[in-house]
Each structure stands twice: as structure tokens, then as C-alpha cells.
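notes to self, project folder thing:

trying the whole complex as one job this time. last attempt i did each chain seperately and stitching them together was a nightmare. two parts in total, labels are on each line so i dont mix them up again. if this works i'll redo the older ones the same way
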Amino acid sequence: MTQKKKNIIEREEVVVKFVGDSGDGMQLTGSIFSDSAAIAGNDLATFPDFPAEIRAPQNTIAGVSGFQVHVGKEKIHTIGDQVDVLVAMNPASLKANLKWVKKGATILVDADAFDEKSIEKAGYKDNPLTDNSLESYLLLKAKITTLTKESLKDMGVDTKTAERSKNMFALGMLYFIFDRDLKQAFHYFETKFKKNPRLADINKVVLQSGYNYADTIEALESVIHVGPAKMKKGRYRNITGNVATAWGLLAAAEKSGRPLFLGSYPITPATEILMELSLHKSLGARVFQAEDEIAGICSAIGASYTGSMACTTTSGPGLSLKSEAIGLAVITELPLIIVNVQRGGPSTGLPTKSEQSDLYQALFGRNGECPVIVIAASTPDNCFYYAFEAAKLSMEHMTPCILLTDGALGFGSALFRIPKMSELPAIKPPIAKANEPDFKPYKRDPETLVRKWAIPGTEGLRHRIGGLEKENITGVVTTDPMNHQVMVDLRAAKVEKVADFIPEQTLDGPAKGDLLVVSWGGTYGSVHQAVQKVQAEGKSVSHAHFNYIMPLPKNTGKILKNFKKILVCELNSGQFVNYLRMKFPLPNFYQINKVQALPFTIQELTEKFNQMLEEK
Amino acid sequence: MEPNEIINPTVERSTVQLSKADFESDQMVKWCPGCGAHAILSALERVFPKIGYRKENFCLVSGIGCSSRFPYYVNTYGIHGIHGRAAGIGTGVKVANPRLSVWIATGDGDSLAIGGNHFIHIIRRNVDVNIILFNNQIYGLTKGQYSPTTPMGKVTKTSPQGTIEHPFNVGELVMGAQGTFYARVPDNDINLMTEAMFEAAKHDGTSVMEILQNCIIFADKVHFDIISKEHREENMLVVHNGEPMLFGKDKKKGLRINGTQLEVVELGKGGITESDILVHDKYNPDPGIHLMLAKLAPPHFPMVFGVIRSAIFPTYDDLVEEQIKHAKASSKIKCMDDLLNEGDTWEIK
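result (full assembly):
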């Protein structure tokens, strides 16, 4: 069956992108391909790139949907700057994505889709498959739609179903190109179409046909092999940031013994957390889809008052709507976990795109002196741990905690080493005991300044709390001037004291030097990789990536003082750098910012690092 | 259909007989002297011991406004929230802990203006909470601006030429939102208030009690033409379940259906007897008549008071419990370790 034995090219890492029309099934194709890589032992990162519209006009640039996956035999930190293999199902998707494709890359297209009308709709003057504009790539023109139909002609499949299976033909070709075992995909179809074995068979046939067809292509001289990555022993799974966040919250609920309550309203790109938690009622999760963002957080505050581990999940505009209620949770000193999956703003902004521009809002966006704990996750898989940490800090310190993730983390996936619940730290909320002598709602632990959580239904603890300023200890409503000063100071000091309970800031690289690169949240992957690259060139660069924002780790100032230049990299106009300037008035802060709804590329970062090192 | 008359068994009952004193807080009540809210507070403190739950199982929730200071004045668990959001907070309290008896104190501004969205949605979901809506047709705490229930044309501080807005009828709004319980009571009849509160406690689902309350400072006597001693006989019809809808001097007047409309008739006139009079059925699942009753008002009709609607529908919180119970029984995932290892996973050695 094999025509001519193909050569095998060993690669350290490869970036593959599947692009097509919104309805072409590119997300699914990409996910199956990623799973095959994971099972083959690669490390990986994935990112879906889709328009805000569900079905934008067919064959237009606006309707292009994509899924990018970066696989490798080394640790993968980003989704990759440039694409090695592009699968383009129509002219528009080719046009929209060519700028990300490396020279010399493999481009697989469905030649059937390049008819005159579609070419014109995509904004091409001439057919890009025949005008030699793709000369510098390995162009594989396969009549995917025709071939798919042919492969199914003995099965009596209607045209529509056949056409819809063309993504699996393309995927079959990729399985061949990457020397992957089809078994994993077969298994996937069998599970997914358990109730419809015919559909499973159709997909299998098409996938196999694509695989066989690729073998016959003369132009395809070699197959790519990416060996297994050296990863820490253990059991793994692929996980998106949003699912990891949901699971981190569930884990914290189990660990703390407090039932999970989620009050939320659907908003891109945070909705998946709400959907995921809705699936886990068997773990006792109470999920309330509210009528709006405000009701979402208010229901969570009500649930928190009754002793639940209460959460609300949202994105930027939703956080704006929740501001007043966050203030209520601050003044009532109730635990509350607020997850903000950041997107491009202001206003509706770029709903499906990622940005880090809600940091100011998280830190300062409320009336009055209103401090909350702010932490940020930095990889899709560590969303699990930071969601867990947000819940732990919030409950143990009786104060709201905002967890910042972003669209890229939330939608993106990475391999997740599955922890055992017994390995996770204990969570011990300060719950008041029944008939506790001298119980007072705002009596505090002198060490942590934390008040007790007195749960309705408990004997001997009846009390009232609310949004009006309260007298310290007793909780009686008062406008006494000195008491207000005391309470404002106490609420701030309580949050500052959290610094005693979080890890010290770590540093990657020497503790002293010319350049310290600082980043926070979702930019970890690209900044880390860029720093590594410059370090590998023998230059002295160190990297501090922050996950704890408010309060900052206690050693932050000490780290910053040891560097001649501090470069803060952010996907906003400079919010963290200004926060650091406010906390540490040093003269040597520099910044690199980007607000293009795109991640940093390794190249633009390394260029900036080198420039900073050269300028004296 | 005879409905379940038993107080919600999910809430634990007190083993000792409680009294009004058990619910009186030590806080200074800061409502204006002569404010209708004092009577509402007194009615609630009287009804709580009668309801019989453990005192720790009552939870009061409120938003912002004069009415919303309520939780501070009752010795139970309580949370004073933010403007308009009591329904949201109360939903969270009840869904998170169905073993609590949740009472929301709110006003016409709090629930019908800034909190209108939450008000209709808590009703639509039929969350088992009791809403006491103080309707004084004015913003009191901000000192006298018109509210969503202020009658059209009324001069207030923000409507010097008279309002140009159509007011809400609370009952109509409740039923439009598929409400299952609606009662209207005046603040000058503590027995009627207590009775409605008790009925509200018995009702499983969102109970809305509209209390026509007097604001002595900014909207004094707005309900005078209906609920005052001078007018109540002619202008108030108090409905009782299973009884004919009679009112007026010596209960000689009544309501009957004529075609698709209600009309006022007099007993003894034109051969009208008590058997012609509409009999109140608060349990009727169809809100048609209830809606008609809620909308009646002088001069051509009396205004209807008492429990107008108390229909039996599943409550949101019960359905939540049911789904959780079902999921726990049927799912293979019993703990986080199960979930973490469920589906596609692989070992790296």
C-alpha cells in the first residue's frame, strides 16, 4: 500500500493551526489532533481562535475560525509565534492566517473550496493556489471535499453529511504527516457516537481515507516525528484554563468542607466555568444562573453569609457591574471568590480576545477604601491551583478575593498533572462555634485581624451585618468618625497581612544584575521563553513572574532593588508597572506593552531585552 | 384541591414556645414617629413565634431604603444589602441553605425601580422567600422623590409639575411575573398584616406581601382614601378563601362576574343573593381572577385586600435540592479524585 517510503524528520516542536469557516469544525479537529499528541507523550499548548459571531457570513474573513496547537518534546510554554503546518479549509482562512505561517511551512488546503466566488469573497484578486504567491511554502492541494465524498460513496451517505466530514479527511492527512496512530481518534469517535455507530463509522472511514491519501502524495516526501517530552512522572490530562478554574473551586470546596455556591451570568470568555460547574451537582455544587451580573454576585454574597464557599465568575464588563456588591462583601467581611476572565476592553471591546487590562479595576475599581486580595493564574493548568488558592485565602481571611485569568488562559489548554486531593493544603475557615461565649460579629483574631464566620442556623450567634459602617467588635451601625478610621485601617491591614500566608516571590536567574524582567498573569509562557532564550545566549537577565498582586509577596521590594533596570511586560498600557511604581518609588522602571488582542511574540520580547541590555 | 397547610417542614421548629420578646433587638429603631413601618415590625415580631421555627432559622434580608433598615431591628440572623439587590441576596441565602426561613424587607423604590429586574426574576423562579414590600409611593430615605408606584400627576420634589409616569400596580406585576403568592394589607390593621405574614410563611414559593404603608413626612395619607377608618368600609374588600367577596356597610355589596368583567352588585337588589357573589379561591392556579382582583380600585370598585393568590407550584430551591440529590445518586463521580481522573487521562512513567 505504501507508495514510496517517506523520510522521517525529527522535530523538537511543531506549531499546527487548523483554520476554516466557522461551521467547518476546526475546533473539534484541533482538539482531536491535540489529544493524539498528548497520548503520544508530547507536551502541548492549544488555543482556539474564533470570531465573536456564531456564524459570520460564509467564506468571509470575519467568519474564520481557527485552532492552534503547539506540540513538543520539551516543555511547551506558549501556543507558538509562527505556524509550521497550516490546514486551511477555504480561501478566507488562508488569507487571514498566512501572515503567521513560517516560510517553508507546509500548507494543506481543500482545493475544492477555492472556487472563483470564494476566492473573491476572501478578497483575493487571483487564485492563490495558482498564482505562485505560495511558492515559498510546501503547498499540498488536495480536493478534500471530492475525496471525502468518494470515500463514502459505498456507504450511501447523503451529500450534506459527507461534506461535513471533510475536516476528518484533513485530520487523517495530518495523522499521516505526523506519524500518529489512528486508534486514538477511532476510540474518540466510538465514545462520542456511542448512540450512533453509523456516524462513528463514517468518521473512521473518512479519517482512514485521508490518512491513506496522504501516503500517495508525491510532494510529501517526509513525515514529521515529534518525540515524547520528558515530563514529571504521574497521571496527566489535557485541560483548558476555564475547566481548571472550575475544578480548582470544586477542590477547595471539598477540602474546606464548605458547600460550593456559584452565582453567575453568562459572559464570554468566562461562561465555560459556569457551564462546567453546572455539570458537577453530584459534588454538591449549587449553581445559580442569575438574571444579571449583579444578581450573580449578590446571590453569592447571600450564600457566603450562610456559610457556603461562594463564587461568581465573569469577565471585565461584568466585573464593572459587580463593583458595588464587592464593596458589600468587603464591609461585611465575608469570603467571596470573584473570577475575572479578562478580555479586550473597554466596554464590550473584544469579547473573544485576551488582554490584561482589568488589573486597575480589580485593584481599585470600587467606591470607598475597598481593598480585596488579588491573585492571577499564569497557565491554563495552574488556573486549578490559583482558583484553589483564591478560595483558601478568601475563606481563611474572610475577605473577597479576585482571581484574574484571561481569555487566552481560559480557552487555551495545557497538560495537567493530576494531583491527589490528599496532596493539596488544608483549608480552615474561621467558623464560629455554637453558643460561643462573648461572640461579637466583628471581634477579630489579633494575628490575622480576621473575624469569625457565624453561620445562620447556629445557636447563640444571631447577628446582623450589612453595608452600613459598623462599630468594631460589636457590629452596631455607627457613623462615629474615629470608628470609621479604625475600620478602614483594619480592613486594609487584614488584606496586607495576607502577605504572611503566601509564598515569597521567586526569581528565575541571578538575584542581582542589569535587567530584571517582570511579568504577571497570563503572559508567563511567552515572557519565560523569551527570557530563557536571552539567558541561553549568555546574557544576564532575570525574570520575576507575579501571581500574587494584592498583597505583593513580602520580598518584592528586596528583589526589585538589586537590578539596574526593571522591565515590566504587560498586555495593557502599563497597569502593573504603575502599581509597582506606586508601591516602590524606584527610578528604573521600564515597560513593554501591547494591546492588540494578541500575545507577546518571543521575538518582540527578546528584541526589547537586548535593546535594554545594550543601552547603558 | 386542598393544599398542604403545613408550615414548611425543611425548617427546624423550636422546641420551646417563643414570644415576641425573643425577636426584639436591642437596637434603637430610627424610623420617624408615626411611620407605618413600626406597625409592620410589630406584626412580624408577633408572627415569628406563631410560625414556630427555631429563632436561629429566621434570616432577614434587605436592600436600601427606610424599609430596609428592618433587619437591624429584629433579633434574628440578618443581612442589610445594597440598593435593589435584596432579592438576589435572599435567593443566595435560600438556595444555599433551604433550612432557613428567609424574609425580605423592601420598598417600592428598592424592589420596583432599581431592583425591578431581580424582583420579577425571584418571583418567576418561585424561590421560597417571603417579601414584605412597604409601598408608601415615595422615596423616603432620600427625602421625597417620586417612585414607580407614585400616582400619575403627583407633585413631589422631582416632579414639581406632577409626575408623567404610569405607576406600577404591585399585584399586576407579581402576576405578570408568574407569581404564586400575593397579598395586600394596610399598615393600620395589625391583625390582617399578621394573618397575611402567617399565610406567606405557609406558602411554598415567593410570597409577596404589599403593605400600603404611610410615610408621614413625604407622602402622608396617600392611602387615606382607602384604608382610613372613614373609608375602609366602602373602599376595602378583604378576601378570605372559600368565602364570598362581600364588602360595604353590613356586607351588603359584593363582586360578581359579568361576562368577562367583575362588577359590584348589592345583595337584595335586582334579585341578587349571596349565591351570585364570587367566592374567593386563592389556590386557583390560573391567575385570571386574581389579576382582576388586584387591579380593582376606587372610585368604581373597592380595593382588594388579604391573600389574593396562593397557588401551588414547585419552588426553585426544592428543584435545586432534587437535582443535586438525583445527581449524587446517579453520577459515578462521588469526589474530586474521581473527577480529576475521569475521562481521557494517561500515565507518564
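what i see at first glance: Chain A touches chain B through 69 residues (CB under 8 Å).
need to look closer tmrw
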